[in-house]
Write a structure and sequence with these properties.
hpI Integrase, Chain A; 57% helix; 361 residues; single chain; three-stranded antiparallel sheet
């Protein structure tokens, strides 16, 4: 059964469902005497039942990751507008397209009807009486794009400002979040790959420069990618490992690079939450980790049109591009060239703003 790189379930297998859910599911699949109402599952194809089971497993995995899975609640009691909205937000943050989201919500409704056929759950796929697919078609599709170099500077600013926080734990959390944003901005790993980084094997210092290793299991396309961290991050990573990570560990010992406030490894849910809270404060809208890939994929080609395929190669999003244009040896050089071009673009923008301010002054 699928899991992310940090071990968190993406789809909760049936044997890990709460006992009540398992009981309701098995009862829902058993033929019923019509005296007690129609047998809903009997109207469904085996494929539809399998899809519903998978979607319900995804729903339960999201709730469990958010520490919102009450095993004593019956399936029908657990399905509330607030939780379904949260489920929707998590699916979007994970990069699912609108059609996939609509299918998963339809599968959730079907699974719940199998378990509790007497309930009216049409609102899941028709909020306020409007078909979900129609709503998704008119919802804004394009998120605003920020330059990756701008996002990188924002991350460093947050990490620098963290040093003024009133206590060590607050300083450590804010510094960690700023560093995380800087890594996302210029190396754009997927959320599961970011969560999988450890302080011994996947973040290593070689000849005074840190390297980030994303293994085959971390990457959606199954390719191993070994990239240098941006040069400017070297002292920041030094400080994080030597000071702030130790504060967060609080005397504990484990290899996870990103550490949560409770000293445990920071998993995908915690990373997503930190990034969404940070973007909400900075930009007035909560964006997840996948937004950084969207920004990079849009701004990097504009900054370096001569580096054909470089952004896709750094993102690890297209094995065809990587194989055709870059091997692992020169991928490092390409990443550094792209980084230099985007830094130059940032410097030119700052100089332009300075000239404009001088003219206005």
């Amino acid at each position: 059964m699928r899991a992310d790189a940090a071990g968190q379930r993406l789809v909760l297998p049936f044997e890990e469902w709460p006992a009540l859910d398992q009981s309701f599911w098995q009862a829902g699949l058993s033929p019923r005497n019509e005296l007690y109402g129609p047998w809903y599952a009997g109207t469904l194809s085996p494929f539809t039942i399998r899809l519903a089971k998978q979607c319900n497993g995804r729903w339960l995995a999201v709730l469990r990751a958010a520490d919102d899975l009450d095993p004593t609640a019956s399936p029908g009691e657990r399905v509330t507008p607030r939780r379904v909205q949260f489920f929707f937000d998590q699916l979007r943050a994970a990069g699912n397209c609108d059609n996939t989201i609509a299918t998963k919500l339809w599968g959730l409704r079907t699974a719940q009807k199998i378990m509790r056929p007497e309930l009216d759950l049409s609102w899941i796929t028709a909020p306020n009486g409007t078909d979900l697919r129609s709503l998704l078609r008119v919802m804004p599709k394009r998120k605003p794009v920020r330059s990756s170099s701008e996002l990188f500077e924002w991350g460093l600013r947050l990490a620098g400002e963290a040093r003024d926080a009133p206590n060590p734990v607050t300083r450590a959390v804010r510094f960690r979040n700023g560093l995380m944003i800087a890594v996302l901005a210029m190396r754009v790993p997927r959320q599961r790959a970011l969560a999988a980084l450890d302080a011994n094997l996947r973040v290593t210092k070689v000849e005074g420069r840190y390297r980030l290793l994303f293994t085959e299991g971390d990457m959606k396309n199954g390719r191993r990618i070994d990239l240098p961290a941006p040069k400017r991050l070297t002292p920041w990573i030094d400080e994080y490992l030597g000071v702030h990570r130790l504060v967060l560990l609080g005397g504990r010992a484990h290899d996870a690079f990103w550490v949560g406030q409770g000293s445990d490894p920071l998993k995908q849910q915690g990373i997503e939450g930190a990034i969404r809270r940070g973007t909400l404060r900075e930009f007035g809208h909560a964006y997840g980790t996948h937004w950084f890939r969207h920004c990079f994929a849009t701004s990097a080609p504009l900054a370096a049109p001569h580096l054909r395929g470089a952004p896709a190669a750094v993102m690890g999003s297209s094995p065809g591009v990587v194989e055709k244009h870059y091997n692992q040896g020169n991928l490092t050089l390409v990443a550094e060239m792209l980084e230099e071009v985007m830094d130059e673009e940032r410097e030119e923008a700052l100089k332009f703003v300075e000239r404009q301010n001088n003219c206005l002054g």
